[in-house]
Amino acid sequence: MNTFLTVVLVLIALLLAVAVFITYRSYRLREWELRLKSKGEMRVATMKMVTPLKIQACERLLLFLERSQLPALVKRVYAPGLSKEQFHLALLRSVEEEYEHNIAQQLYVSSETWDAVQRAKEELVGQVNATFDKTEADTNVALVAQALVALPNPFVEQAVALLKKEFNEI
Questions:
Q1: pTM
Q2: Fewest C-beta in 10 Å: which of 73, 88, 123, 128?
Q3: Is 34 within a domain?
């Protein structure tokens, strides 16, 4: 009888251990499910906050690129009576101020898109500097402005295309 009682007690202990183990595992599984659900809800909430910022970044960078197109830039900066040096500095200052105003937008666009925006800006500055370097000191500012307006900038077009692509993927 003593052996029988021992076997019964061992079986009861095993059943209790299995019940505790199953309860513990169920609790951990439920906790894990709740954590995943919480992460999913946080991800959705984050996307709801970030998506408008990404859209705004695309808009602002597109505006920067459009304002940096040489025809628009020259039209905005050129004023009769400016010296060649003043005009040159005003063009460069305008591009740099616009760029600095939008530099934080890189947080919301891909590295590829941001690199394209930077290349477009650098190419634009290079074109402006090269045009002024090629002209004589006494060249009429209006002629320099006309020469700038006639220059193409495929880097701006590439950056605009990448921005539009990124926008459509949002």
A1: 0.73
A2: 123
A3: no
